[in-house]
Design goal:
The structure is a single chain. The protein has 174 residues and is α+β, with helices and mostly antiparallel strands. It contains two helices and eleven strands, in the order αβββββββββαββ. Residues 168-174 have low confidence and may be disordered.
Amino acid sequence: MKPESTPFYGVGVALLLAAAWFLDNYEGYRFPEPDSQQFCQPQVSQDQFRWGRVMALDDGSHLEPNVLVRYKVPRLRKEVTSRVIALEGQRVRIDEGKVYVDGKPFADPYARARGKADYFPELVVPAGSVFVLNDQRMRQGADRMDSRSLGPIPLRAISLCFAPRERKSGRRRR
């Protein structure tokens, strides 16, 4: 074996280890619900494929606002996808459709069609939980699938999390 070829073996081993780590920590997911039941469009739509971080292996320390999470809703016997708005210990409220976290307006670039009649009293997110909202908050049924109805979502109920995709330029928010 030539000494010059040794670094290439190291690169190959590093690539294999990186691939093994990625496949152990991330899972490919295809969203099964029809678009009529997706409340985070266009970020999530039927049959869309995305890589999600597996939460069973994580303590949730990497979660941050605007990340999409897939979680179980036991009373509905289904999983849904919503966006993280506040983390444990943060105060969240909705006043005339505007979201406030720790008393400051929440930068919410993904929300669509905020309703001035949308209110939620201030709540401190308990330890081991997150507060989630859907992007299309005023669509019929959207409030039944996020923290406005379900309350804070326990980290143990979250199966996957997805990094937000950038908004396409030139699209107007409604």
